[in-house]
Amino acid sequence: MSKEPVVPQNDVMESLVSLCKRRGFIFQGSEIYGGLAGTWDYAPLGLALKNNIKNIWWKRFVDNRDDMYGVDAAILMNQRTWEASGHVGGFADPLVECKKCQHRFRADQLSSDDGKAASAVASAKKCPDCGGALGEVRQFNMMFKTHVGAAEDASAVSYLRPETAQGMFVNFKNVLDIFHPTLPFGMAQIGKAFRNEIAPRDFLFRAREFEQMEIEYFVKPPKDAKDMEWSKVFDSFREQVHGFIADVGLTASKVHELEVPDGERAHYSKRTIDFEFDFPFGKKELYGLAYRTDFDLKQHAEFSKVDISYYDEETKERFVPHCIEPSFGLDRTVLAVLADAYTEDTMGSDAAGAEKEKRVFLKLSPSVAPYKVAVFPLLKNKPVLVAKAREVFATLKAEFARAGIQGVAFDDNGNIGKRYRRQDEVGTPFCVTVDFDTIEKSAGVTVRDRDSGKQERVAEGELVGYLLGKVK
Ligand code: ATP
Hints:
Elements: H1 9-22, E1 26-28, E2 40-42, H2 44-63, E3 68-70, E4 76-77, H3 79-85, H4 87-90, E5 92-97, E6 104-106, H5 118-124, E7 138-141, E8 144-147, E9 157-160, H6 165-169, H7 172-179, E10 185-194, E11 209-219, H8 229-247, E12 255-259, E13 271-279, E14 282-293, H9 295-304, E15 310-312, E16 317-319, E17 322-329, H10 330-341, E18 342-347, E19 357-362, E20 373-377, H11 383-402, E21 408-410, H12 416-425, E22 430-434, H13 436-440, E23 445-449, E24 455-458, H14 463-471
Parallel strand pairs: 3-10, 20-21, 20-22
Antiparallel strand pairs: 1-2, 4-9, 5-6, 5-7, 8-9, 10-11, 11-17, 12-13, 13-14, 14-17, 15-16, 18-19, 22-23, 23-24
């Protein structure tokens, strides 16, 4: 097998989007009606990949710890939530419209990082679509507004949540009263968030409906300005973020930390690190880690008039805890994992006896791959091979399920060469083939490795242990 030069990065996205559609990972939202910008539908394989990522996250940050409380809060929340959090007043992006073609753009995305204010940059620039003059920059609130119930007056206004975080802050008191946790402890949630992005783009990267995986981790407030106890928790989450990145198989050298400087952080944050990833379209934010202080709990206490404080049994003090927030975009993780895994090479006449041919494959980590193993009969029209392959498939499926692993597939579509290519394209790490030697000589099955294309024979009795050892 020979490695070809790396695929030009701007071609990767086009190939990836097409692979995702062709192989049943991700479809355009509402496709038969011409789509709906900024929405994507997960198809069976994309859903399996996404669920694997979610499960890895939940296991690392909730199940494997004893200081985390999971919640699944409603997407629609009382409008006061968003007044308290600052989103009604300030969750806006600078919008600029072309006077000629009326296309709209995010003013800050028209800039060339030269440090100019968005308004100055936008008014100096021409419309990227038609060259027309751009109008004034105005602030555009990105929350999706709706009305709850039959009335459409101001009191019925609600919003689709733009972040999952607030669903945790408003339940802080409930968790405190019912579970009596002692500080430090955290709340965790995975769920949908909605932002009416001015310019959704780059496939799953900037969507209008997406999922977040967030943690609000509560610590004692600092005693004074020099007390940096919170930074130990901050640093431990920093490590944990890298741990999760390794769990899902992302290339560590493509992840970069960016210390967000004063003046560029969100209004609630005293310190923020962005974890950026080398996407095919550039280095962009994948995750964020922020020290939100006591901003949110204090705001909710003030707006709701409910006492949201913590009583410390040890020191006999009552105070509002501070909060560290690691925030992960689930869809951005799916995109990063897919883009990182996308590989092209050439492969020789291994199994199919075919000439050297260009091959596209997803080098997915077994931890996230939709299928870990695919089982084939060498020939589809030989009942004896099909029956044996079905038997091997049933055993593997049952044994994998016992080990808590899903993703064993049966495939007899097309010739064996085509099946290998198809499984390569969806990132299946191992293919098991039942051939005549399996039956006539009790010679076991062949196991083919996705990345090297190499095959080895494995005795039937050793197959489960062999494969579990490789995918666990
Ligand atoms: P950006 O600057 O890229 O708009 P952000 O700083 O506004 O992102 P946060 O508010 O910190 O993002 O949201 C936390 C995480 O949610 C992000 O790190 C990202 O992974 C994810 N996320 C935010 N906006 C989107 C979006 N429009 N589509 C997909 N994922 C998103």
